[in-house]
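Board notes, transcribed. Complex of a protein with nicotinamide-adenine-dinucleotide.
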Amino acid sequence: MTCVPVSGAGFATYDVVVGRGLLAQAGARIAPLARGRTVIITDETVSALHAAALTASLDAAGLGHEIIAVPPGEGSKSFAELERVMDRLLAAGLDRKDVVVAFGGGVVGDLAGLAAALFMRGIDFVQVPTTLLAQVDSSVGGKTAIDSPRGKNLIGAFHQPRLVLADIDLLATLPPVQLRSGWAEVLKHGMICDAPFFDWLASDGAGGATGDPAALQRAVERSVEIKSAIVGEDEKEAGKRALLNLGHTFGHAVEAELGFEEAALAHGEAVALGCVLAFRYSVRLGACEAAEAEKVARVTAAAGLPTELIQAGVFTADALIARMAGDKKAEGGRLTLVLARSIGDAFVEKTVDAADLKAFLIEQGAT
Ligand code: NAD
């Protein structure tokens, strides 16, 4: 079991605990934070699989609880679901002493975190992430959001959790595609700033992509350390935090073209493809050796993740560019991309030329 502190200038330090069997300890670990009751916000799938273990643990610690379960899937990051959740919190008579427990993947974490940020101008919340993606990425760093029909994650707030409990055992019930999807974010952390970690993920740690608990433990720990260090320096994404978007501008464009709701491609699969494209584009700009991009593609493919646009669908370069320029990370109309000098050395490029990017996308199989 490892404990990674997350500290930053603008928020209270909190711990991310990574280990096995943590759910049984959740009550004891949450009790010191809760002066009242807990409300568990979860999705119906996670609730059916794991809520009994969580509530037993809260019971054992003498913590009262209530469960709000939303439908699984991105569709729950909506105004309608947020309103329903807020109404349930009000109806339950929750007050500022109570604690929200976000128990699920990134969808639940983002929705529950935003509900906690808004309820009575902000109450405490704890993240108990149940997907690999949520354990290595979305539960840490305080970004919360719902989607708008105009784009993903456009309505949100920064609201840091008080505690994150990442129980590796919860990942045993994840469908393989969700495991792979989270693995893409793990690989991304190595690509951004830790080449030796990337090499370990490609060799001894590779079993994590298919559920080996020991490899997952190390992969989650190191990912959380990396994310924690970046968020601690730059909570509001004024600089370094943008590096965590490696692969995301390409990935979001592909996801948006496919329609987020249809789940034709899991989020992490889109990010994996996006990372490969970002490395290949870095090579095109002369910033990175071709061998590095080839290695990224090889390791990504070995984890069962897509490396070619054609694997995701048929896209026009114009449509992808329009999505990329409309991405909220684009500043002042110029295209911003996270690129890399090598594996472990990512950087933000704010002056990407749309015409050159279009030519690149056509080379990569867009029409
Ligand atoms: P998700 O929350 O939709 O979970 C994926 C699926 O797995 C769901 O069907 C869920 O019911 C199921 N599931 C969850 N835990 C399970 C378990 N232990 N066993 C079996 N099934 C389980 O998806 P996700 O990939 O975890 O998160 C994606 C979301 O995270 C996106 O909305 C994305 O925008 C967001 N995100 C947020 C941040 C952030 O910093 N806040 C970062 C990255 C991604």
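The radius of gyration is 20 Å. The domain at 2-173 is CATH 3.40.50.1970 (Rossmann fold).
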